[in-house]
Specification:
Blueprint lengths: L2 H20 L14 H12 L5 H8 L3 H13 L3 E5 L7 E5 L1 H23 L3 H19 L6 E4 L5 H17 L3 H16 L7 E7 L2 E10 L5 E9 L8 H15 L4 E7 L3 H9 L3 E10 L2 E11 L1
Parallel strand pairs: 6-7
Antiparallel strand pairs: 1-2, 3-4, 4-5, 5-6, 7-9, 8-9
Helix pairs in contact: 2-3, 2-5, 3-4, 7-8
Length: 307
């Protein structure tokens, strides 16, 4: 098992330990109630579902039939639930709370809300906001049934600043480039915004699972009939999923539709993954030259694609 995988597993296990300890889930009785965690979850499902069956609750909670059966038997012995035949399927029994069951659930719900409220109150506002956002993100991810969807959209207010930040931070981390690159990207984005011609230029922001994971820009070139592909980038976690290829394809397609006859781009030899994407799309290397930029000795490369 590689080190990165080990680190991922360790991070999630550490979260589980911290979360269960902070929320008291390891206690034999949850939130000063007579119920264990699994009993409390079964009680919650019964209270929040319309005419549930034991099988339905078991599937929702990932519990086996024997465990569900034992829990419901304990509830029935304590007068918390009652059952009736399912008119649509004689093999099933419909479960509902008795008045004592509703009272017990209301007490449990009140205690749980108070406990979670006290936990949240113990965090400074900025950490509380981060915690709640992380909780919403985790919930969305673990409950998602479909694969992450890739969307290419037009830039929205705030996107250009975000792209500037992410490109500068990524190239500094991955290649050690200094602030000169950030200045260059700032100029490119500012010019794009100030002189944007919607008939001849375009930009795409890539979203994967609702998160910005890349971008690309099509701008007018320096000669008649030529356009430039600029500022392609993809977030590390989204690489290998086809995002870069989709961005390049969109740029090429728009350049053709706009009537350009050639699409040029300038890159550096150290960006080997990007070069492979350009070459697969049909770009040819037409020039290269050494230069010192961004605090590094680099080899600049110009690629062109005849449209």
């Amino acid at each position: 098992m590689d080190q990165n995988r080990d680190n991922q597993i360790a991070a999630l296990r550490a979260f589980n330990r911290a979360y269960t300890a902070k929320t008291g889930l390891l206690n034999s009785h949850l939130d000063q109630s007579p119920f264990s965690l699994s009993e409390a979850r079964v009680l919650y499902e019964i209270a929040h579902r319309t005419d549930p069956t034991a099988a339905e609750i078991g599937r929702a909670l990932g519990l086996d039939r024997a465990q569900i059966s034992r829990t419901l038997k304990r509830f029935a012995q304590r007068g918390l639930v009652e059952t009736r035949d399912d008119p649509s399927d004689a093999r099933n029994l419909i479960i509902s709370l008795t008045s004592d069951g509703r009272e017990a659930f209301a007490a449990l719900e009140g205690n749980t809300r108070a406990a979670i409220g006290a936990l949240l109150d113990g965090f400074p506002p900025i950490r509380r906001a981060r915690l709640l956002q992380a909780a919403r993100t985790i919930n969305k991810i673990v409950e998602a049934d479909d694969a992450p969807a890739l969307i290419l959209r037009d830039p929205e207010p705030g996107d250009l600043g975000y792209i500037l930040y992410r490109q500068s931070a990524l190239y500094a981390k991955e290649y050690g480039w200094n602030g000169e690159y950030e200045v260059l990207v700032t100029k490119i984005l500012a010019q794009f915004h100030q002189t944007f011609d919607p008939t001849m230029e375009a930009a795409w922001v890539a979203e994967l699972d609702g998160q910005i994971v890349g971008s690309i820009f099509l701008v007018k070139g320096d000669t008649e009939g030529a356009a430039k592909l600029r500022l392609l980038y993809v977030e590390p976690d989204a690489r290998g999923s086809g995002v870069a290829s989709k961005l390049v394809e969109a740029c090429i397609r728009r350049a053709r539709d706009a009537g350009y006859t050639r699409l040029d781009l300038w890159t550096n030899s150290v960006l080997t993954a990007a070069r492979r994407i350009y070459e697969r799309a049909g770009f040819k290397l037409v020039d290269e030259a050494p230069h010192h930029s961004f605090g590094k000795d680099l080899v600049g490369q110009t690629f062109s694609l005849n449209l």
